[in-house]
Amino acid sequence: MATNGSMPSLASSVKYMLLASALYEPLRNALHNLGTNVGGVGGVGGLCNMGNPDDCESLAGRTGNYCFQAGLWSGLTGFALVVLLVWTSPIFLGALQKSVSTAKPVASEDRGRDSGDEPGAEPSPEPETASIELDGVLMIWSGLSCLWFGMPLAYMLADPFYRSSALHFVLAVALAAAFPLSWHLSLLALPPCKPLGPWLGLKRQDLLNLHKALGWRAAGWGAIHALGELIYVVSQQGFLSMFQLAGEKGENLLYLMGLVTALLLLVHTLVAYLRRQAFIRRTFKATHRTTASFLLLSATVHWWPFALFLLPAAAAYGTSAGLGVASQFGRQVSEARNSLALAAAVLGAFAGLCVVWKVRESVMLAEGVGLLIPFVFPPLALLAEFAVATAVCLPILVTGPVLHSEPLLG
């Protein structure tokens, strides 16, 4: 479907998200150096309610497991609320704007010209600039990847600890690689998503090529991160230490889930690489989506802030699920209704996160909570985001006009 050039595009929303990703770590690091409680490397503590370990008497800490701190609102810290606002507003406002701007019906002759559905009409040619835009996106993405990786590596190597041995240097590289890997996993699911992809200003094939390019880069960063961490952990504690989860060793689940996530990323990459083989071609889409879902859930267990950064993807795919249901009911979904559903899904996903995060706060502040319990809530939040996003957008999508098949003209 060709898009009318006068219609707003959600491409600007993704541009603002990329800008936010570029500014996140420099601003977080600056705030951390000023003494603001935004957490250490990557902001995990500031985003996930964990205080400074120096202020804790034990793993349980003075206020709960992992030095857990009460949130400012609905279990969310002030830092998490600001990050969520900046991270989700572009897609929410972009979808809302598109809903308003496309609500006006298009004249029938214009609709026919744009969609190529007139008898004998040829489909509207896609803009020649699309491939140039794709090259530009990939160039910008490469620059961002250098920033995502280079800045944390620079300030880690400024610490004498990471320069004290070759092994510590490997650890610094592995930790720095986690930054571009996290942004890749947070963003690469968006281009091929049905409610969002067609409005990014690229041709369908370019959207798929963008997704593939980002997927291969994510695999590369994942390999660097996983191998570096594995080398360090095995050399310090031994491979079997990751499987020791009882009592105060429950924190080892972090490393075990990192290993599981790395293996899932490998499987997911192999599925993509072998997609043209006969034994996987027929079921590639379903297999690809399944492995991607397990990969992101596992990654969220390993790195808890994914529960926040994957919220736009959860909303987009919740809308996609709603579109599937609407299609089964034979409902026609206009661009305006589709955009409104996406905006509503963002709010629904946020509500799902808030419910789980509030329960998380209540549980974590209780006495005697085990060290494995915190790992349950981030993937549960991600599932809640998707479920509530789907439920919220469904009434908007299934109340559209019913599709009627037109009789053939003789």
UniProtKB/TrEMBL annotation:
Chain segments carrying region Disordered: 104-129
Transmembrane domains' residue ranges: 72-96, 137-157, 169-193, 254-274, 294-319, 339-359, 371-398
GO CC terms of this entry: membrane
Keywords: Membrane, Transmembrane, Transmembrane helix
Compartments where located: Membrane
Claim: Membrane is one of the keywords in the record: yes
UniProt xrefs under Pfam families: Ferric_reduct (PF01794)
Keyword Membrane attributed: yes
Membrane-topology annotation of the record: Multi-pass membrane protein
Biased composition (Basic and acidic residues): 107-116
Domain Ferric oxidoreductase: 191-298
Protein name stated in the entry: Ferric oxidoreductase domain-containing protein
Organism: Symbiodinium microadriaticum (Dinoflagellate)
Lineage: Eukaryota, Sar, Alveolata, Dinophyceae, Suessiales
